[in-house]
Amino acid sequence: METNRSQLLPALSFRKKLVISVISLILFGGVITYAVYEATKATVTISIDGEEVTVQSHASTVAELMKEQEWEVQDYDFIEPGLDTEITGNLSVTWNQAKEVFVTIQGHEEPVWTTADDVEQLIKELNIDYREEHDLLSPALNEEITDRMNLIYESAFQVELTSDGEQHELWTTSTTVADFLERESVTLSELDRVEPALETRLDRESEIQVIRVEKVTDVVEESVAFGTVTRKDSELRSGREEVVQAGEEGKVNKHYEVVLEDGEEVSRELVKTETVKESKDRIVAVGTQPAPTVSRGSSSSSSSSSSSSSSSSSSSNGRTMTVTATAYTAGCSGCSGITATGINLNNNRNMKVIAVDPNVIPLGSRVHVEGYGEAIAGDTGGAIVGNKIDVHVPTKSDARAWGRRTVKITIIN
């Protein structure tokens, strides 16, 4: 037994060494194979949105490399060289991942995919003719593009503004008149008016007019004419008049609300009348004492006792004299329209009547007036004294046409 055991030990030792040798050989071969495999990989440097990553790969194309690295390339991404480029030796790849930007142009929004680095690059991609001094762009040109950012662009246009007496042509991106005035710092008072209306949408070549409206109070002093009052006076001879009280004009202040548009008056409304001074009537006393009668058939001796009777007796039929003649109407200032003998001239506008001095021409006489015709001496007047007469005419224009003239008159009876 001992002999067999001693023979077996060397055999087992040999086998063990053989196994170890085989395993070592296998491991060495694997290492060599791995080393060769690794040594044959291509080196690819990839710039991903500006950050470089270096990888070793047996991929034959850029597309296989991206798949191997589990990198998903979108349709809008920028990759250079292209996905179908073969990988040989060392290769540099640029990969810019596209970002979604919501672009609003003139109020219309649409999504845009871009690989631009900043806003300036993006608007060039979109062929936007941006005028920095007039157009609206938000955010600014140098702003970095981020995923799902909002970009707003509005193209400016010219608007004509007339305000406060001045006219301007201004660039704007405003959508309404109200927005435009706010951006231009044009303030409006409560009464100011704007054409077109504030809510009107603006377009190219719009014209905006700001009308400044004011309400002011204008106080105007006006005179109030006095009236004429006649009073009968039995102590005055019939046909005579005396002014008892001179008339005085009154005064009132009229308050007007005046509306001005750009300084020009467009409306005026009376809101209040204030009496400053009351007017005083002109009071005229009209005589009612009958004139003394003269007996035409009396003897010359009896008539010589008084100058009055002498004057009356000289008023015989056919006597002619020269007088100064003026004219009046029934509606003259201070006239009642009723003569001293009771003739209503208001109802008899065309009646031939003259005012006389009863001491010269007796009331009731029929008289022929040169240039006037036959008339009745039926009225008197305060200014008609001596050889003066006043002829009655229908209208004021007739009175002005008559004027003052010297005429011959003949007392008919």
Number of strands: 24
Question: How much helix, percentage-wise, in residues?
Answer: 10-25%
| CA gyration radius, whole angstroms | 62 Å
How many strands, what sense, and barrel or not for the largest sheet? Answer: 6 strands, mixed, barrel
Strand order in space, largest sheet: 19-23-20-22-21-24
CATH class of the largest domain: Mainly Beta
Strand-residue fraction? 35-45%
Kindly report the average pLDDT value: 84
CATH hierarchy: architecture of the largest domain:
Beta Barrel
| Total of DSSP H or I helical runs spanning 4+ residues | 7
In terms of quaternary structure, what is this? single chain
Uncertain runs: 293-316
Structure in words:
By secondary structure, the chain is α+β, with helices and mostly antiparallel strands. Strands 19-23-20-22-21-24 form a 6-stranded mixed beta barrel. A 4-stranded mixed sheet has the order 2-1-4-3, with helices on one face. A 4-stranded mixed sheet has the order 6-5-8-7, covered by helices on one side. About 6% of the residues have low confidence.
What characteristics describe this protein?
single chain, 40% strand, Ubiquitin-like (UB roll), four-stranded mixed β-sheet, 413 residues, 19% helix, alpha+beta, 5 domains
Helix and strand layout, with pairings?
Blueprint: H1 2-39, E1 42-48, E2 51-57, H2 62-68, E3 78-80, E4 91-96, E5 99-105, E6 108-114, H3 119-125, E7 136-138, E8 149-154, E9 157-163, E10 166-172, H4 177-183, E11 193-195, E12 206-211, E13 213-224, E14 228-237, E15 241-245, E16 250-261, E17 264-277, E18 282-289, H5 300-303, H6 307-313, E19 319-328, E20 353-355, E21 366-369, E22 373-379, E23 388-392, H7 396-402, E24 405-411
Parallel strand pairs: 1-4, 5-8, 9-12, 14-18, 19-23, 20-22
Antiparallel strand pairs: 1-2, 3-4, 5-6, 7-8, 9-10, 11-12, 13-16, 15-18, 16-17, 19-24, 20-23, 21-22, 21-24
